[in-house]
């Protein structure tokens, strides 16, 4: 999700314009973490595209004077945003302050847009031309008060953003896609057979060749799910030796094609390297995850203790995934899979609104500030959940955040917002 920073000195009508761009009447003020109380992030939506709008606040002279404060704001905007919008009062024209900020912004590698505000009528249009002198390209006339020009301005903003990768999974309905993965003989085809019931007609095996993955539609708990690339499983194709590489490629492709993976692990055997490799594939692909320990009918007390130890030792990095102990043979707990898949997908789909996210983060960081590095205390300026599927949080900071602190934030984030069964990615954008 791209970020637009809006900058401008007091009284140019910036707040009114921000509300206009957000389609709101009243100022919705949301405090943001860090000492800078005057920086506010909002979710914005225009023409079906989402972006984060950051209002950088007015430039008040600070200890080093107005020019320094202006330059600092402009620098910040340049470094944290994908595009910058400078708001100028067209009736006043470009003041020294705006000339100073324009000098900073002209060096920016990011696109800069210039809004000439308070053009409330035809008379005001002539004032706009003088703003070309700022060297920031075309001044765009708007009236934040009346709303004229704000649609065109938003179109220009969207055009200015870099191409953002489209979400792989649109809101295209259809059954949710599941990959059933795990090493050979873990019981994948047995489980699939159990889930479908051998005779169930809902299973839809289109005759395919070996290169065409074939999906199965499976009804679980009153809902149809698409199990991807199950042709090999159902036909119990026994591959010749030396094909492990291809099997792994195929697993990878199935995971990529799915939204959630059921990772099958053989409960009767020690956890293997191969298990961990498949697990890594799921996590790296950013898919939701359910861990199913199969062959639970073979697990005795001793094995059970051993298994708990393995989990503590080897599966800490997927502590967030729910675990179900099943038996494809007896049918034990197989009915738990559907609700568990649903929970995982719900987290995977979730997007926490920027205001809520920052409100939470502000309190958390105030009570647990990031550790000082190199004598400096990094500040977290604001956060936005740039994406769901998987949930991806971008933190804008003034310095590097240690891995331990990032893990702490992730854990708290999961606790607060109830993320279960989905990876959560946290990326940090440090302002240079
Ligand atoms: P795949 O290679 O992952 O598809 O594994 P299969 O479904 O072919 O199963 C491998 C072997 O494990 C077969 O002999 C199955 O009968 C057996 N098996 C699968 N699930 C279970 C289970 O829950 N309990 C027991 N005891 N055996 C199982």
UniProtKB/TrEMBL annotation:
Coiled-coil annotated spans: none
Domain EngA-type G: 2-165, 176-349
Residues in the signal sequence: none
Keywords for the protein's UniProt record, in alphabetical order: GTP-binding, Nucleotide-binding, Repeat, Ribosome biogenesis
GO molecular function, one term: ribosome binding
GO biological process: ribosome biogenesis
Residues bound to GTP 2: 182-189, 229-233, 294-297
Binding site residues for GTP 1: 8-15, 55-59, 117-120
PANTHER family: GTPASE DER
Subunit relationships: Associates with the 50S ribosomal subunit.
NCBIfam families per record: GTPase_EngA, PRK03003.1, small_GTP
Family statement drawn from the similarity comment of this UniProt entry: Belongs to the TRAFAC class TrmE-Era-EngA-EngB-Septin-like GTPase superfamily. EngA (Der) GTPase family.
Designated name of the protein: GTPase Der
């Amino acid at each position: 999700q791209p970020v637009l920073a809006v900058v401008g000195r007091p009284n140019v009508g910036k707040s009114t314009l921000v509300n206009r761009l957000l389609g709101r009447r009243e100022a919705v003020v949301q405090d943001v973490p860090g000492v800078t109380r005057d920086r506010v992030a909002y979710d914005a939506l225009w023409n079906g595209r989402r972006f984060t709008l950051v209002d950088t606040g007015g430039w008040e002279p600070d200890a080093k004077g107005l020019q320094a404060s202006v330059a600092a704001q402009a620098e910040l905007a340049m470094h944290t945003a994908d595009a910058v919008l400078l708001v100028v009062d067209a009736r006043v024209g470009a003041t020294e302050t705006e000339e100073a900020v324009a000098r900073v912004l002209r060096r920016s590698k990011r696109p800069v847009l210039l809004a000439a505000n308070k053009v409330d009528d035809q008379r005001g249009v002539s004032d706009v031309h003088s703003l070309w002198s700022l060297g920031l390209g075309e001044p765009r006339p708007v009236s934040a008060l009346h709303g004229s020009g704000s649609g065109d301005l938003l179109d220009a903003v969207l055009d200015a953003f870099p191409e953002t990768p489209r979400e792989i999974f649109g809101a295209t309905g259809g059954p949710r896609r599941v990959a059933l993965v795990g090493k050979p003989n873990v019981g994948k085809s047995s489980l699939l057979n159990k889930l479908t019931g051998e005779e169930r007609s809902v299973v839809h095996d289109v005759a395919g060749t070996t290169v065409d993955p074939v999906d199965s539609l499976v009804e679980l708990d009153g809902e149809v799910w698409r199990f991807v690339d199950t042709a090999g499983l159902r036909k119990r194709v026994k591959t010749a030796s030396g094909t492990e590489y291809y099997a792994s490629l195929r697993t990878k492709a199935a995971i990529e094609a799915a939204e959630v993976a059921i990772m099958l692990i053989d409960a009767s055997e020690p956890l293997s390297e191969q298990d961990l490799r498949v697990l890594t594939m799921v996590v790296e692909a950013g898919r939701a995850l359910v861990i199913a320990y199969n062959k639970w009918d073979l697990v005795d007390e001793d094995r059970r203790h051993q298994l708990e130890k393995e989990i503590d030792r080897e599966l800490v990095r997927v502590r967030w995934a729910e675990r179900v102990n099943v038996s494809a043979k007896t049918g034990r707990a197989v009915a738990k899979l559907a609700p568990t898949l649903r929970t995982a997908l719900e987290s995977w789909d979730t997007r926490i609104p920027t205001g809520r996210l920052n409100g939470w983060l502000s309190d958390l960081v105030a009570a647990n500030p990031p550790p000082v590095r190199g004598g400096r205390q990094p500040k977290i300026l604001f956060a936005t959940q740039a994406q769901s599927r998987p949930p991806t949080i971008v933190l804008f900071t003034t310095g590097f955040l240690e891995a331990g602190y990032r893990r702490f934030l992730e854990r708290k984030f999961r606790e607060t917002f109830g993320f279960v069964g989905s990876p959560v990615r946290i990326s940090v954008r440090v302002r240079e």
